Amino acid sequence: MKKPSKKNIAFLSLAGGAWLWLNRHGDLHVTLKSLKSDVAAIRERDPAAANLIEALTCYSGLHAIMIHRLTHFFFNQGVPVAPRIVSQMNRFLTGIEIHPAAEIGEGFFIDHGSGVVIGETTEIGDNVTLYQGVTLGGTGKEHGKRHPTLEDGVTVGAGAKVLGSITVGENAKIGAGSVVIHDVPPNSTVVGNPGRPVRERGRKVGAADLDWTHLPDPVADAMQSLVRRVVELENEFKTAFPEKRETIEKAQGEGERELERIFEYYDGSGI
Ligand SMILES: CC(C)(COP(=O)(O)OP(=O)(O)OC[C@H]1O[C@@H](n2cnc3c(N)ncnc32)[C@H](O)[C@@H]1OP(=O)(O)O)[C@@H](O)C(=O)NCCC(=O)NCCS
Atom 33 of ligand 1 has which residue's CA nearest to it? Predict the structure, then answer.
């Protein structure tokens, strides 16, 4: 077998060293994993994406997030100015401005792209979708954390403005053209300016509630809240008195089984 040249050995050592240094906190691995999930997100969420080549070449939203993943990586490594410059070039190329500090989870999808702005202290969970013209911005009145947090599975419609340090709960939808400046509960839909909920926790707002089998039960609610409090106290007790841990855990296990039976009864199973 041919012996590798000194030049090749030097190159491979340099590349290996650079990889190990860049990945010293595991960031590079996370970046590459996120990029893979972004490509998969396009194919999952846009029926127009016929194949991988089309996804890679025709989606400026994908190009923008790819560049952001790199600027964010170098921003976290403490590289000065360059990530901001590259993010401005990103905006020039794709029409999408993402501050390098913005934290974005896996499976992120920006459809159509143009006109999207994502501010510095924005936090975005996994599997979030934004359409063109969305602003995740500040109100201009806050300091520190001043941009929104979007939890997993959120969709923000075209042209919507989500402003301030607010939280949009899991799987919530923001209608196209809405302006939202207050927290949005999970599984809700908010539309209009100012944003108003038309669906809350999966239920249509203002519609007659014809679900007679799941009536509110204040006694069960009060019991559940007391049980939660007791469990918290027991857990604190376990930390304060580790020698009693085993006895407490045994009692907790028995109590939980009994409670499950009671709550099943409240849910209509009968005892
Ligand atoms: C809000 C949205 C997600 C629909 O959610 P939904 O929970 O299914 O809501 P519904 O369609 O049942 O509509 C509920 C109410 O909100 C109104 N509404 C829906 N979308 C709205 C919007 N963007 N702006 C203002 N009102 C809207 C409906 O007219 C309806 O009003 P009504 O109860 O008085 O009749 C959807 O309308 C939307 O805006 N999606 C964004 C899509 C987008 O940006 N596409 C761009 C593709 S390029």
Answer: 198
